[in-house]
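[retry 2/3] Mycothione reductase: previous attempt timed out, resubmitting with same input.
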Amino acid sequence: MPLTEPGTLGRLRWLSVTYFDLAIIGSGSGNSLITPYWDDKKVAIIDGGTFGGTCLNVGCIPTKMFVYPAQLASAAKEAAALGVDMVVKDVRWQEVRDRVFGRIDAISDGGRRYRDEELDNVTLYPEYAKFIGPKTLVTASGESIEAERIVIAAGSRAHLPDVPGIDLPQVHTSDTVMRIDQLPERVLVVGGGFIAAEFAAVFSGFDCEVTQINRSAPLLKSEDRIVSERFTAAAAAQWNLKLGWTLSRIEEAGSGVRATIAGADGGEAVVDADIVLVATGRLTNADSLDIQAAGLDLEEDGRLAVDEFQRVLAGGIPAEGIWALGDVSSPYQLKHVANHEARVVTHNLEHPDDLRRSDHRFVPSAVFTRPQIASVGLTEEQARQDAEVSGAQIVTVIQEYGTTAYGWAMEDPTGFVKLIADKATGQLLGAHIMGHEASILIQPLIQAMSFGLDAYTMAHGQYWIHSALTEVVENALLALGTDAPST
Ligand SMILES: Cc1cc2nc3c(=O)[nH]c(=O)nc-3n(C[C@H](O)[C@H](O)[C@H](O)COP(=O)(O)OP(=O)(O)OC[C@H]3O[C@@H](n4cnc5c(N)ncnc54)[C@H](O)[C@@H]3O)c2cc1C
Ligand SMILES: NC(=O)c1ccc[n+]([C@@H]2O[C@H](COP(=O)([O-])OP(=O)(O)OC[C@H]3O[C@@H](n4cnc5c(N)ncnc54)[C@H](O)[C@@H]3O)[C@@H](O)[C@H]2O)c1
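[retry 2/3] Mycothione reductase: success.
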C-alpha cells in the first residue's frame, strides 16, 4: 500500500495543516457517515483505493452478481433428476463481467464525484493516509490534516501466503479475479473459507474445472460441524477437493501455471491451472495507519481496539474523538456489521451526550456458495460448552428440506435446518441452514432471536404458508419440542 514517502515528516514542518470538524479514513461504510448534520461543518473523506470500498467494488455486490448467473447455469445439472434435460450452450463471460462492472463502476464514480465536486463542505483526498499525531493525519502526497473527530473505517485486505510465484499474473485474489478477460478452463482455488466457497461455486457453475485445496478439513470450519461436514461432501460432489494440502510454490507453465502443493504427510503433488485464486483470509488495515503516533490500542489479532460505543481505545480508555468501524476493528468482517457500526458511529458523533452501543448479540452470515449456507448464533459445540457452565439443558434438531412438500418438489437431497435451543425457555441459541435460499429462510430465525421470541410461540403463534419452503423452519421449530412459555 503506497503510504507516505520517507522524509515526508521533515518536509511537513513547512506545510500548512488543514483543519476539519470530521475526517473519515475509508470511503466504504465510512462514506455513509456524512449526513445533513455535517452540512455546515468541514468534512474530509480520505481513500487511496477505489471510492466506495470493498463491498461495492470487489466484495459482496459483484460476487453475488456472478453467483446468480452461475446458479442459473448449474441448474441445468440439477434439472435432469426432475425429468428436465437442459443444456447450457454458452457462458458469455465478458458479458457477464461487463454487466457487473457496468453497473458497479458507475456507482463508484458517481459517489466519488458527488463527494468531490457537489458537496461544498466535503473535501475528498484520493490518497492513503496515516497518523502523525493524536488528531493529525498525513496523506501520501504530504497533505497534513487535523480534525476534531476522526473515524477510522479503513477496512481489510486480502492475505497472501509467502510462497514463490505468488506474484505471477495468473495468481489472483478476489480483488482481481472478477475482472479477468476470459473464462478459464481450469481454476485452482486456495483456501477453505467464505471467498473460496463462493468462487469455487461460481467457476464450477460456469463449467470450469475447479480444484480447491485447503490445509485443513472440513471446509468452512467456523460453521456448525454438521454444516462443515455436509458442505464439504456437497463440494466434493461438484469440484475437485484436496484437503490437508498447502500451497508451496507456483510456476508458469505455458499460458497457465503449475502449483506445487505439500501434503500433511510430507508428500508433494502438482495442480495445473489457468488461474489461481488465493482466498486465505483478510487482514485488518490497522497496521497501515501508524496508529502508534496516536497512541491507539490494537487487539491481539491486529484489529483496532474499540469499546461498545465504537470509540477507539488508547491505553485501555477511549481516545477522545477517535472512532472506528467495520473490518479495521470488527471481528466479523461482514458488510451488515460494518453498516450497523456505521449507524452507531453516525449517532454517537451527532449525540455525544447520548451514546449508543453496537449490538453484536446475533450476527448472522450467509455464504453464497452451492448449496447456500446461513447461520446465526451459537454452534452446537459452543452451546454445549456454555451449558456445561450454566447447567442449562440444550435441545437440537435437524430437519431436512426433503421432509417438506417444497423439498419433494425440488427432490432436494442435501438441504437442512439445524436449530439449537434452551430446553427450559425455548429460546433459540443457534440456527444453521444449508440449502436453497438459506440466506432468506434464516431471516425469521434471526428475528426471533433478536426479539426474544421462543420456539414454541414462533411455531404456533402464526400461519406458515403451505407449501412454501418455510415449512422446513416451522417443522424444525415444532420438532424441538419446547413448551409454551409460562405466563
Ligand atoms: C469477495 C468478498 C465478498 C464479500 N461478500 C460479502 C457478503 O456477501 N456479505 C457480507 O456481509 N460481507 C461480505 N464481504 C465482506 C465485506 O465486503 C466487508 O466486511 C465490508 O465491505 C467492510 O467494510 P468497511 O467499510 O469496513 O471497509 P471497506 O469497504 O474495505 O473500506 C475501507 C476503505 O478504506 C480505504 N483505506 C484503507 N486504508 C486506508 C488509508 N490508510 N488511508 C485512506 N484510505 C484507506 C480502502 O481503500 C477502502 O476503500 C465480502 C468481502 C469480500 C472480499
Ligand atoms: N458471504 C459473505 O458474507 C462473505 C463472502 C466473502 C467474504 N466474506 C468475508 O471476508 C472474509 C475473508 O474471506 P476468506 O474466505 O478469505 O477468509 P476466511 O477466514 O473465511 O477463510 C480463510 C481460509 O484460508 C485458509 N488459510 C489461511 N491461511 C492459509 C495459508 N497460509 N495457506 C493455505 N490456507 C490458508 C484458512 O484455513 C481458511 O480456510 C470472511 O471471513 C468473511 O467475513 C464474507
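[retry 2/3] Mycothione reductase: The chain has 14 helices and 23 strands.
[retry 2/3] clearing retry counter.
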